[in-house]
Give the backbone structure.
Amino acid sequence: MRLAAQRIGSPASVGTAAGPVLDVVAHMTALQAQDLGQALWAIGVRALGTTRADVRAALDRGDVVRSWPMRGTLHVLRPDDLRMLSSRTAARTIRQTARRRAQLGLDDTVVDQARSVVIDALHGGRSLPRDDLFARWREHGIDPTGGRGTHLLLHLAVEGLVAWGPTNGTGQDLVLLDEWAPAVQPVPDRDEALGRLMVGYLRGRGPATEADAASWTKLPLADVRRGVAVAGEAVEDLGDGVLALADRVPTRPVAPVHLLPGFDEQLLGYADRTAHLDTEHADRVVPGGNGVFLPMVLHRGHVVGTWSRSERTHDVRVTVTAFVPLPPAVTRALRPAGDRYARFLGRPLDLHLHADTD
């Protein structure tokens, strides 16, 4: 049921007014996007047949943006969904990061000055890479080193001023959110936002628990429960505290093996990840517990290894590291999984496999 909700391995939607990229992002409400390259594939693996260029084009049009809607973590989402989420999470994030701002010497005067510089630099539909914006701050006496620049960007994004917009090489430029992607719908009130948030969370991740939703949003359980109440009959209780949408995506046959990006919602969308990843192998997905989630090999919804890739001029080399020796049927299914990723990049596949049983 989670594979169906997550749309892992689904073909790109056709005939939708929004287009397949926007359709996937809207379905998921928000997708983890700490790393841009992996975020592009997080969309591609849920819309097979699209290419990396298709996803970048959606970013370049402003159909979707990257920002920090919750947990101080980058996600890719529709601009109006960003505004909806931020209406419930921004105040908490700003309170929770106040101590860090003080440690960095970023008092209200500095934040106000940084905000003014950003507006002056970006208004009129302009965009700038991060380093160019940092240079503007330096010109006005604001030191972006030591994490100060990154924290200021997060703060101004949480306020709703800036977002990551058009692509620029391997990165993105910063834009003024309301100029780059003007609001189409008004920001809903508290109850409507909480109801939409819970429906959106379960649409892309159910079945899940209230604790899972609270972990994903970092909202209090009381807010999550209020969202469930507002959603009413749209949410079905499957028993033992497990919730799903009443009108959920039906399960369907899918390929047995998938190559997922790092930080994927199939794992990070839940507080309890043991249904997808054995505890004994958790440190192989997050080496050293450093918070960096490696790209994952998924077999029938279960993480059985990690993978890495190296793009070359003539192909893409994909190296799979299995946690234990894989059965022949799973090994054979790795190639079509790799081929799907290679087609997304528009390159031939060079696949390698080894088992790490240490």
In short: The radius of gyration is 21 Å. The CA atoms of residues 110 and 116 lie 10 Å apart.
